[in-house]
Amino acid sequence: MKTLKVLGGTLLVVLMSVSLAACGGDSESNDGAPAAIEGTWYLKSITWYGWKNNQPDKSTVYSQKTFGDYSDTEIWTLKKSGDNLILTKSEEGDEPSTYTLEKVGNNEYKRTGGSSNGNDKIVFKSVSAKQMEVEYYDNFFRPNSTIEYSYSIFMR
Q1: What pLDDT does 88 receive?
Q2: Which of 69, 87, 124, 141 gives a 20 to 30 Å CA spacing to 155?
Q3: Residues 27-48, mean pLDDT to the nearest whole number
């Protein structure tokens, strides 16, 4: 009888530890935006790429700029709205613009609203509490048109 109590207690401890481990949270959700995306992000660096065969050509860098400290040159404020995101973008010298980022794939969004014609694609490559890497494709969804540029942004 004593052996059964010890085995039962051991089994209970094992089950509880497994169930607690299974309840751990993810830093990223597959059904919506990355968990750490909400907040205000400041530009750290930006790289403009060329295009080849209607795809970004990362071997062709047109321009690259890194800011010694995070800059007020471009500020993004992001909020979740279901699977979509609301982006308020401030660029130095311009009034802020608000856009809806409509989810089109895993961490991929189509920018609409504001001054956008709904052709831009934004891909959140990585998002943590302190850094976000974004790929931005200008005119990606425009039919029968040459894509003008893409760029990567590192923000915090």
Answers
A1: 94
A2: 141
A3: 72
In angstroms, the Cα distances linking 13 to 6, 7, 10, 19, 24 are 11, 10, 5, 10, 18
Q: Are 139 and 124 in contact (CB under 8 A)?
A: no
Residue 74 near residue 92, CB atoms below 8 Å: yes
**Contact criterion met (CB below 8 Å) for 148 and 136:** no
Q: Which residue type occupies 17? A: S
**In the chain, what is the straight-line distance between the N-terminal and C-terminal CA atoms, in Å?**
60
Question: Could you read off the pLDDT of 60-81 as tens digits, one per residue?
Answer: 888 888 877 767 788 899 999 9
pTM of the complete model beyond 0.90: no
Give the sign of the dihedral formed by CA 24, CA 29, CA 31, CA 32: positive
Selection from 141, 146, 125, 143 nearest residue 47 by Cα: 125
Residue in the block written with tokens 């935006």: 33
Instruction: Give ∠ CA 123-113-153 in degrees, rounded to 5.
Output: 30
For residue 103, the cross-strand partners are 109
